[in-house]
Amino acid sequence: MAEITSLRDAVAQLVHDGDTVALEGFTHLIPHAAGQEIIRQRRRDLTLVRMTPDIVYDQLIGAGCAKKLIFSWGGNPGVGSLHRFRDAVQNSWPVPLEIEEHSHAGMANRYVAGASGLPFAVLRGYRGTDLPKHTDTIKTITCPFTGEELAAVPAINPDVSIIHAQRADRAGNVQMWGLVGVQKEAVLAARRSLVTVEEVVDELTPVPGQVILPTWAVTAVAEVPGGAHPSYASGYSERDNEYYAYWDSIGRERDSFQRWLEEKVFTTEVAQ
Amino acid sequence: MMSVAAARALSGGQRVFVGIGLPSTAANLARRTHAGDLVLIYESGTLGSKPTRLPASIGDGILADTADAVISVPEVFNYWLQPGRIDVGFLGAAQLDKFGNINTTVIGTDYADPKVRLPGAGGAPEIAANCHEVYVVVRQSKRSFVEQVDFITSFGHGRGKGDREKLGLPGAGPTLVITDLGVMRPDPDTAELVLTQIHEGVTVEQVKEATGWDLKVAPDLTTTPAPTEAELTALRELKAAK
């Protein structure tokens, strides 16, 4: 059964130094507040997993929380580069960052295999690209029925997956809807999970297209209104497009980033 | 001009895999002008989006709110893209070479110590493999149009005709490259990109200057007709809509 707890306590209990951690959310419902709490608690040596490392991973990488990144597209969507990510890859600042690079199709299938309890996934992918030369988690397998050569990628089973959703009830059942990306798979693939939600309600009202994660499939739920900002939560908030552009000016230089960390993360206590 | 030329390449009820930026502008412009029943598919998980303004990102809420269906990301790639249900994939490129191979991963030949680290693959390798055709939309310069890309993120025509078939890639690969200067198409015999069209006011010399290989020019080179009033109005309305 999911424990309903505070963000601070949930991160303290569920995220440990050296863990493999996935924070998922495909443009929508990105768990930014949880990412900043991980920075605040100064976790180190994390292997971060995410299809689209964007601002929240730029922050975690720049703060020195990560030793490795498993990903398929790293950028500031609609704006340009992630400068902290680039600085870590090109200059090892603040610490060296190992990368394991896939395509979206490969990453999505790795989560599906993880959620399915399978050791690997097959897909018709990567053919002709240079990715398999540099990523040893891309192999080839022959179909036993047709003889077709296909790509095989290992399951992702994070120690902990963290997502943001719209609502949970007091029993810890989680409801989300809209663009649901790969969040359900990330939670089901993980050993432990944390869902931050816009609100905890007495009773969940059914919504078209909703995804339910039953309380027994989730480890912890924390109420964090606005916890996806600057991304959005359909039905609750709009995407703050200006913030994505603004981040470029913060993330571009080490000094401005350090100032941002001090002012907006380390000296800010989370509510509760 | 680039978005108008790209919009014109789309027609009828084609199913288009759309990326943000120029591809999205072009696809939405086509839907508002000559191809009203174009089916827009975004990798965030929207099938048949009909946005009333330009989306700010592939996951803009307006794409989900106006879609025929909203699906998960594994479903987009496994059920819709992989089996070949999508006609046209629109891709951008940091580097493009003379056989239409695309690099969006690293600049520099040492992957572990790159000159510039780019965003990476995203959905592109499988879009380039599995869509029936690929249109590449990219600004042209000597830096971006190179003899051979530093890293193949998405396979175009390899080192020439027949390379796609050898790999068993189902789609036709890049059949059209649209730049701010003109349009290139693969030569039917060699698969090398050849300049087939220049935009109004551009000279062949200018295009050659902005290409990092000895660009061949089609004997029947044409000029892109100037944007019509209707296209310009639709483009302005699209860009102004909030």
Automatic annotation (TrEMBL), chain A:
KW Thylakoid (keyword) present: no
Keyword Transferase: yes
EC number: 2.8.3.12
Family: Belongs to the 3-oxoacid CoA-transferase subunit B family.
EC class name: transferase
Keywords assigned by UniProt, alphabetized: Transferase
Database matches in Pfam families: CoA_trans
GO MF annotations in UniProt: glutaconate CoA-transferase activity
Organism: Amycolatopsis thermophila
Xref: InterPro entries: CoA_trans_fam_I, NagB/RpiA_transferase-like
Signal peptide: none
PANTHER family (UniProt xref): ACETATE COA-TRANSFERASE YDIF, CHOLESTEROL RING-CLEAVING HYDROLASE IPDB SUBUNIT
Highest taxon, organism lineage: Bacteria
Gene3D superfamilies on file: 3.30.30.40, Glutaconate Coenzyme A-transferase (3.40.1080.10)
Protein name (database record): Glutaconate CoA-transferase subunit A
